[in-house]
């Protein structure tokens, strides 16, 4: 096994910088998600690590060794893409055996290793089937077995679950995580799906326009986003804008919002506060003053979306809509048009420099 270090990696296509000075340390045995909008450079980064494409500048090291000049087949990397190109005219077992056969391994060794890989992905009894006799999820497991049978040092997954429907996708997320833990392989996972990134990975890197805008454990990025982009891309966030007071902001109508985390900024400069919808309390009035929920805003409910276990309220105030998510624990429901008081704690409020 091995970690992967990417240092100051840049890659342009014509005038377009697909990767712009990206540095990430992918820890040995870790599960790392690369997240970002379409065209942000996720696949380009994966292709550089795999060796399908080469950087204009920067370094890539696998297990501490520079691999910029090492061809793809010598990097000992397992790869699974969304369009898992299995050989249609070969059995499942032969598909999985392919990499080992090319390497010239003995037949008995191949049979053993293939069976072990198929057992690991829980397809041990389906080795003689053809790919068209499998479901989408099963085909994706074959692709995974094929990627890991050669005992690669690193596993690269590019939207591997993208073609699966929601229920199957959730099953496969659990399965993939189990397999990754079992073999302890360094895994780099590209996804569009923020929930998938949050639930599966030890660390997340958010890319935008070829640059790494933030990276860290899921909780850290969620609780302490460093930019409006990170706050709104990973999870939902209300962004309030104003002038900094040093410890928070003053909104255009003069209301102050206190922040418990984030950058320290000189008073008077433009800044934003980000607050997650589930951190805001909503009530008909302010009730008994409570220092914990020191941030208060009056508003009016414009819309309520009932989703069974929770409701989302859209609250209008000073030409801004604030989103609040409340668990439906049996307390009264607020109706559209109702005047309400929103309250939340400074600790749930992150101060962000204006972008
Ligand atoms: N071979 C290429 N030639 C020209 N431009 C390219 C090439 N490969 C990628 N690009 C461009 O580089 C940028 C990054 O592409 P990349 O595929 O890495 O994005 P991505 O984040 O993986 O997007 P998606 O989520 O849509 O797959 C895009 O603007 C893309 O058009």
Automatic annotation (TrEMBL):
MF terms (GO), sorted A to Z: ABC-type polyamine transporter activity; ATP binding; ATP hydrolysis activity
Quaternary structure (record): The complex is composed of two ATP-binding proteins (PotA), two transmembrane proteins (PotB and PotC) and a solute-binding protein (PotD).
Family: Belongs to the ABC transporter superfamily. Spermidine/putrescine importer (TC 3.A.1.11.1) family.
Species per Swiss-Prot/TrEMBL record: Mesorhizobium sanjuanii
InterPro entries listed in its UniProt record: AAA+_ATPase, ABC_SmlMolc_Importer, ABC_transporter-like_ATP-bd, ABC_transporter-like_CS, Mo/tungstate-bd_C_term_dom, P-loop_NTPase, PotA-like, Transp-assoc_OB_typ2
Protein name: Spermidine/putrescine import ATP-binding protein PotA
Keywords on record: ATP-binding, Cell membrane, Membrane, Nucleotide-binding, Translocase, Transport
ABC transporter domain span: 4-234
NCBIfam families with a match to the protein in the record: potA
Catalysis performed (reactions): ATP + H2O + polyamine-[polyamine-binding protein]Side 1 = ADP + phosphate + polyamineSide 2 + [polyamine-binding protein]Side 1
Cellular component, GO annotation: ATP-binding cassette (ABC) transporter complex
Enzyme kind, highest EC tier: translocase
Regions annotated as coiled coil: none
Annotated EC: 7.6.2.11
Gene encoding the protein: potA
Residues making up the signal peptide according to the UniProt record: none
Function: Part of the ABC transporter complex PotABCD involved in spermidine/putrescine import. Responsible for energy coupling to the transport system.
GO biological process, alphabetically ordered: putrescine transport
